[in-house]
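In the current project phase, work has continued on tokenised descriptions of protein folds. One protein thus recorded appears below exactly as we store it.

——
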Amino acid sequence: MRSMFSGRLAAFALLLLGLLFTLPATAQEDDGLLPVTEAYKLSADASTPGVLKLHWEIAPDYYLYRGRMKFKPADGVTLGEPTFPDGEKHHDEYLGDVEIYHHAIDASVPYTVAPGTTRLRLGVQFQGCHEVDPKICYPPHTEQLDLPLPAAGAAAGGGSLGAALQSLGATHGSTGGDTPLPAEQAFRLEAVAQDPQHLLLRWTMPPGYYLYRDQTRLQLRDGKGLALAPQWPAGTRKDDPHFGDVTVYFNELDLPVTVTGDAGGRTRLVLEASFQGCQDGGLCYPMMTRVLDVDLGGAPATGTPTATAPEAPPTSATQGPLQTSLWLALLLALGGGLVLNLMPCVLPVLSIKAVGLLESGESPARARAHALAYTAGVLLSFVALGLGILALRSAGHALGWGTQLQQPLLVGVLALVMLAVGLSMSGLVQFGASLGNTGAGLATRGGAAGDFFTGVLAVVVASPCTAPFMGSALAYAFAAPAVHALLVFVALGIGLALPFLLVGFVPALARRLPRPGRWMETLKQFLAFPMYLTAAWLAWVLANQRGADAVGLLLVAGVFLALALWWFERSRGRGGLVRAPVLLALLATAAPLYALSQLPPPMRAAQAGDGVVAYSPEKLAELRAAGTPVFVDMTADWCVTCKANEHTVLDTAAFRDLLQRTGTVYMKGDWTDVNPTIAAFLEQYHSPGVPLYVVFPHGGGEGRKLPTVLTSGLVEQALTQAAR
């Protein structure tokens, strides 16, 4: 079977270009083949809150592709990562090595719904083949599901991680239904030392609340040479819909804990307790972590909450960002914005600004006007970006620096903008006054508007980059009061615009600029190529987000955009009727972009292999409990800083040798698309976005957060220390 574009892409290409062809692969009933709905009988069950269960009955001599299953939710429904069983290995003539299913398959898809949603609506797409004569493959088939939500599922709305966890542990006919208590009131924890080798931990819970035994982790901070051995009492057996047969404790739990090893004359121990519990029939809380300072003389210690994210216990890297003063945050933001000018994501746009400054070399007044208009665009864009991120985060959305590029539609629009700017700089289309016109044309309002929107574009393309100093400043901004946060964003903007402000307002610097001349036209055309490379990079990001179909739609949109610009240039100076095809071509450009925005994410395989372990909170906790050093890398395809670090440090033979030498596990999380689990990890470590690098040492203990820009020496030092 040949891989085909989506139905939308084929429709656009057939109707408007006539360049693409499809390969018919329809099943014919007169050949004895079953209709697709009989060959693959799909049934769905949404009775478990927060989880959709799917079952396919597959007829004999038919099979389904695992990698061709896709899910498209309706408005108000957010889907998590689906879970499939391992399939049979199969080499397909056209698709290569794939996994397939015979006979039957069960899958599950976690979901959350918006408040007020009463039905679960989504499209389920799948594709399979008949493997004996006549050997054919069916086209992709989509079935629309419309299922009633259970009461707990309807309540779990909002799309947040806490909402997704709300359904855990719910049972029918239980005592739930009351408003859940805050975690600190629902699960009170104290610890007392009976002697230096024996501790007693006590959880106290109101009626109707329970604690999971197997979701509880205990460890000592700075407890080198010591270990904890809890003696769990008998609890209550519970058939949990997600964890299976588990042991839980209601009302009160007294847990004796033996401290093994030489206490070495210690008078105090710092104990970390991570645990999870539920309101019976209602809310299940995210993983909680309490830190207890235990006096070995016998004074009781009360647990201090330090985290609510369902991740590994917090470490020194999770200390509050507000320990940084406002003035230091502003200074870091200014420096980070200044360094941002040197980052590869900003350089293509700076080429536009460089040409503008060279154009104004004969006039100091024009240089100042260029600089001010550009700075205004930068500052207003940073303020708007900051306001948007802070508003959405306060509403419970997991957003950070650069997350706007998690939206495929914006990535596609940016790629087309870069293409249009490149065509303009190549001289194929003119959007304003020419380079040679340094007179009245440069004094028009259009020139200032061009500088302003160049500043806007600089901020948009700068967002995938995190320069040195920026991480701490942005972490402060996301936790500070709104006014302080906006000041940080303004300082970032001033830093980004500072080089051009200095050139515009310091005559000595302006005089060092080359004099305008014909050579500038050649320079301008040469600088178009970074624009084309940026467009190519954005297309690659889009391919990772939504697959080959998205790139095909982007190419169609690019063709229509080129058509619109070509006719715009051809009709320059003519009447409005002659320019009407420009509007039609632009509308044709918007159509594939809309289709692109409707594409579901492709089925992503876990990032494993070549010594890389896909990130999950459970796997990280397992490795830390085993005492294995772990290097956690949170990255994204649109993060230019991440890719630079990978190219120079992480994807090298030296780094792989270092991992082997230190016994460190390399764990990677991909934030290219929206991922609440990774967002929770970033929030736990007060990271405004990616990259985030955390090293967890051998034998447990606190993790170490590394700078956003890595060097081989820095990584080697961190992993060597962690392995000791």
User: Anything to note?
Assistant: The longest strand covers residues 104-113. The CA atoms of residues 635 and 690 lie 6 Å apart.
